[in-house]
Amino acid sequence: MMEVKLSFPGDNPPLSVIATAKLAGIPISVDSSLASGSLPTFLISSSDNEYMCDELRDILRLKLRGTSLNTLLRCLGRVASIPDLYGQDAFESCQIDEWLEYAPTFSIGSEFENACSYVDGILLKRTFLVGYSLSIADIAIWSGLAGSGQRWESLRKSKKYQNLVRWFNSIFAEYNTVLNEVTGTYVVKRGLGKPVPAKMKEKEQQGSNNGDANEKGRASSKATAEVDLPDAEVGNVRLRFAPEPSGYLHIGHSKAALMNQYFAQRYQGQLIVRFDDTNPAKESNEFVENLLKDIETLGIKYDTVTYTSDYFPQLMEMAENLIRSGKAYVDDTPREQMQKERMDGIESKCRNNSPEKNMELWKEMIAGSERGLMCCLRGKLDMQDPNKSLRDPVYYRCNPLPHHRIGSKYKLYPTYDFACPFVDAKEGITHALRSSEYHDRNAQYHRIQEDMGVKKVHIYEFSRLNLVYTLLSKRKLLWFVQNGKVDGWDDPRFPTVQGIVRRGLKVDALIQFILEQGASKNLNLMEWDKLWTINKKIIDPVCPRHTAVIEEKRVLVTLADGPEKPFVRIIPRHKKYEGAGQKSTTFTKRIWIDYADAVSISENEEITLMDWGNAIIKEIRKDQDGIVTELMGVLHIEGSVKTTKLKLTWLPETSELVNLSLMEFDYLITKKKLDEGEDFLDALNPCTKREIAAVGDSNMRNLKRGEIVQLERKGYYRCDVPFTRPSKPVVLFAIPDGRQQK
Predict the structure, then answer these.
(1) Integer CA distances (angstroms), 36 to 10, 64, 623, in order
(2) Ramachandran category for residue 670: left, alpha or beta (phi over 0 → left; psi -120 to 50 → alpha)
(3) What is the dihedral of CA 366, 372, 374, 378, to 10 degrees?
(4) Contact, 195 vs 32, CB < 8 A?
(5) Among 379, 496, 608, 638, fewest CB within 10 Å belongs to which?
(6) Are the C-beta atoms of 646 and 597 separated by less than 8 Å?
């Protein structure tokens, strides 16, 4: 087994080498501690000399510097698990060498756009720079673009270098797991960033203090990397993502998870996934399992999984210590009265009970007795504080329901407000990332830690992700599930990770969307259109093209000079992406077209039949109600497609067509944002799903569940139910493309 140890300055990582090693499946360890300006070095070792090329064996255990990085790229290409990464013959290898020498041009500021223009021209009719598969030439140029950060991202959004952008996006989509990891760690781009010491923050933070107030209504353009965690030290940061297992992960949780991972990677720290399982009435093992599944889907890399319930004995002990020291008391005030007293700053009649009296009632709570069930444990903080979260919050409540992990051992459970600061401290969390909706509770969090006598944990706030026409409350989402308004937590109308992925969202698009917002504390109401636009840019360059005709009133076209005997041609599933494969298209004398297309045609009009050629419609036949029922025409293959107004999709009249069910979805509620106190039940959308019957080309019987396709002239779809038998339709979910819904 060959191993590579790479050392480089943190501000100048050799992306192409790191990406190639990871794509090649070669273990690589990195050290980004070299001083700024130092040349990269690498050390190669192998336990299998027969596996190595001669050039690599010659440099075994030698440190190579500077331009010798191309030597390493060549050798990595030779031993890679990906075939022909350094070309399939000597001629291709020479071409690749030329590209390796050219790649540094992208690091020369004045030459950057000239280089983009040159490569864009090369890629006009090419999928890869050399040959017909990925090579280290592609990786070197791709890394040069990605490493330029925001400069390339600005050009990538424009239409200036369309061939270059298509090529860049297709490689990123094909190898997204590896490339996203590399760019997410080493590139300051779209909120992704390289590891940097906290001491370097002065330069990074220029202007970031007032960045949150920029341009109302837009996501902050500040990259996440421009914000630092307070008092963070590289190698000494420990974070936690702590979902409650009372539902599936939704898009709002995704932001918290990705923010935690970003900072953990940036500071070379640790990330814990902790389940905040303190409410047995809402939680279940189903939710735990699916949360872990969703975390994996997002590509979150964590060090360990813990549960707040692991700390129940210590939490009980801490509660009793606070009771004995007069910092907590048992209260039997009815809940509604307690809430009113807290609002009005009125002390409970139980507040000044002796520790002995409180311990007596505490034991009743532990036993779950009738008397104990009337009580709760409250912290003795400050009933006059203007911040109402400090007005003696509840620490423990009785709940006789069994816990999903530990059964009926306990009859009382800690609140989140009490358990979170304790467990954070016990697990050595250095920074607790919380959305700004918890801002008023930050003082409570630190006051409770102070009373407990545990180490203070830094709190870092970021804005909650809010989306138009969307409910993110798990209580409200649960209502839709329990009342049969959706088909489950993975329903494509739901904002859960499983729901939006099932609808056709690529995880890379979600990650990019969230990280583009950075760590801003601005409260923004985001449009879904932006997310789906990002998604389209990822799927369009690579998803196969197919054809469908709407079943209702579909119209038969008879071509008088069409083929008497059907024939088949093999054509690409995507004209600009060879990786999509090929499909067979049958050409027949009679073909089907959509009714909407049929009614837009005039007699003697020349039209273009896509992937075939032109035809002239000689006659339009209608029934007694004026409904178009059939068209008669002749082929005009030599005609120019530039002269026709209508370019139509069509299907042959054969028994091989596949029945389709095209599913379209709408928002669950009719208001962009509910007003304060407004009941979501008053804003329910009465029609959120529409099914359209269609027929598709015969190749669609090979679609797999989860595969994304474009139905030409109709849009993008994800296959939810693949072909099993002719009588059962293939179910395709419509994927929004970012254009405003009508």
Answers:
(1) 7, 18, 79
(2) alpha
(3) -50
(4) yes
(5) 638
(6) yes
To which residue do tokens 């004026």 refer? 626
Model pLDDT for residues 74-131, shown as the tens digit of each residue: 878 877 777 788 888 877 888 888 888 888 888 877 788 888 988 988 888 788 898 8
Q: Which of 99, 135, 139, 147 is nearest to 19 (CA)?
A: 139
Contact (CB, 8 A) for 319 and 377: yes
**How is residue 110 annotated by DSSP?**
G
Report CA dihedral (604, 605, 610, 612) to the nearest 10 degrees. Answer: 30
Segment (H or E) for 530: helix 528-539
Q: Which of 561, 506, 499, 286 is nearest to 405 (CA)?
A: 286
Selected residue with higher pLDDT from 146 and 227: 146
Please report how many Cα atoms fall inside a 13 Å half-sphere around the Cα of residue 331, on the Cβ side: 27
- Are 520 and 462 in contact by the 8 Å Cβ rule? The answer is yes
Which tens digits make up the pLDDT trace of 4-36? 777 777 777 888 888 888 888 778 788 777 776
417: its two tokens: 């407000």
Contacts of 351 (CB under 8 A, 6+ apart): 329, 331, 380, 383, 392
**DSSP notation for 145-166:** HHTTTHHHHHHHHSSTTHHHHH
Amino acid at 714: K
- Name the pTM for this structure: 0.69
Name residue, tokens 């280089």. 115
Q: At what angle do helices 136-146 and 15-24 cross, to 10 degrees?
A: 130
pLDDT at position 229: 87
Paired residues of 14 in beta bridges: none
- pLDDT single digits (tens) 251-288: 989 999 999 998 998 899 999 999 999 999 999 999 99
Order of all β-strands in the sheet with 376-379 = 328-331, 376-379, 394-398, 412-414
Q: Other C-beta atoms within 10 Å of 703: how many?
A: 22
Radius of gyration over every alpha carbon of the chain, rounded to an integer in angstroms: 31
CB 498 within 8 A of CB 489: yes
Contacts of 523 by beta carbon, 8 Å cutoff, 6+ apart: 436, 463, 464, 466
The three-class DSSP label of residue 50 is helix
Per-residue tokens: 207: 């202007």
pLDDT tens column, 539-556: 999 999 999 999 999 999
Integer CA distances (angstroms), 19 to 27, 73, 96, 123, 604, in order:
11, 10, 16, 21, 58
**pLDDT, tens digit, for every residue of 230-256?**
889 999 999 999 999 999 999 989 999
Residue length of the chain = 742
Residue 86 vs residues 77, 271, 524, 558: alpha-carbon distances, Å: 5, 37, 47, 52
**What backbone torsions phi and psi does residue 556 show, to the nearest 5 degrees?**
-90, 135
Query: Do 506 and 531 touch, CB atoms closer than 8 A?
Result: no
Buried b (16+ CB within 10 A) or exposed e, 343-368: eeeeebebeebebeebeebbebbbeb
Label residue 61 by pLDDT band (50, 70, 90).
very low
C-alpha 208/C-alpha 165 separation (Å) is: 30
**Which pLDDT value is given to residue 286?**
95
Neighbours of 64 (CB within 10 A): 17
- Average pLDDT of the chain is 87
**Secondary structure (3-state) at 24:** helix
DSSP reduced 3-state for 590? strand
The DSSP bridge pattern shows strands 270-275 and 304-307 to be parallel
Q: What H or E segment, with its residue span, contains residue 720? A: strand 715-721
Question: CA nearest 381: which of 335, 447, 301?
Answer: 447
Rounded CA gap, 56 and 76, in Å? Answer: 9
Cβ neighbours of residue 26 closer than 8 Å, sequence gap 6 or more: 2, 3, 4, 76, 79, 80
Both tokens assigned to 2: 């060959």
